[in-house]
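Bench log. Compound arrived from synthesis this morning; before running ITC I wanted a structural hypothesis for how zinc ion sits in the protein. Inputs:
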Amino acid sequence: MKKALVLLSGGPDSAALVHWANEKGYDVSTLNFNLGDSKSKARVHAAESISKRITDSAYYVDLKTTKNISPSVLVTLAADYALKINADKLFYGIHKNDTVNKEGISYFNNTLSETISLKAGKNFHVEAPFLYYSQSEVLNLGEYLDTDFSETWSCKNRTDSHCGYCDSCVERIKHFSEAGVTDDTNYHLEKTLFFYR
Ligand SMILES: [Zn+2]
């Protein structure tokens, strides 16, 4: 069985990706980076819940003291971690609404894959399986694969329940609504209040 490491932020997209990799038959491990931002504490907790459903192999790396790490550096660090646990692939959950430069992301993934394969002396792949999926398609796929989105985390304001009004919560509400996917999130502020205020 091929072993894959999934970069799991604890948000809905990477949660769907964990289920996708499992469905594809990979021996899945997960990796969560604690970046020390406003979402981190709740996201580590979310990553724990999500991982437990699929795998006993969950890794947590504390990057709280390292400031302003770019996504490409995080992917590179994760790829290095994937090699350490002897994985054949690294998956991460970027989708087409996250970037205007899909070709650039593909090029980066291919270049990093080649570099690491050379270094490791084996075939290693860094892949973004959702790169050409829309946000709605990712959520729909996640729902189809029985992803429990209520365990995922987006809020920047609170750590016990989603506030319902920070920009991350507003985006979350919008994305689930646009995808037509049931949103079981426990919002502190009722959604109706948000929409009609
Ligand atoms: Zn919020």
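What the model suggests: Residues 102-120 form the longest helix (19 residues). Helices lie at 12-23, 40-54, 71-84, 102-120, 135-144, 167-179, 191-196.
ITC booked for Thursday regardless.
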